[in-house]
Design goal:
14% strand; cell membrane; elongated; iron; single chain; alpha+beta; 5 helices
Length: 173
Amino acid sequence: MRFVDAVAGFGVTFGTMFKKPVTEEYPEKPGPTARRYHGRHQLNRYADGLEKCIGCELCAWACPADAIFVEGADNTDAERFSPGERYGRVYQINYLRCIGCGLCIEACPTRALTMTNDYELADDNRSDLIYGKDRLLAPLTSDMTAPPHAMAEGSTDEDYYRGHVGADGLTVR
């Protein structure tokens, strides 16, 4: 019996010895990720540039690793960062603690927080792995206006939440 096991083991070795090796050129040519891979978090924006995060802190409450810190603040007429009454003034995710479970995504009522396919989160400095709002916010596109700015004329916060506000600022119904 042991002889048969040894021959089977050598068979696997000989079978792989003559195959062409597969070389990945990772840093220069990173391969594609799986379609539904969940990597780094992203704070999303509405089509006109206002932030979707309303500072409710539900994501921080749902995080089992206590990796998220949110400090909400009130919007004013002079400075409006999101539709509604509040916005996330401070938003931090500590990737030294994050376990990538996605419970924060499920807890977000406005779909402000999603996960991207970015998987390169290694760093040589511990403080650089605490991502602030500046690194988490989705970039502005050419048709967006950087907040703070007023909501689209004639729209309400409900119009934003239902997706009725377009990039040109007009209410689309």
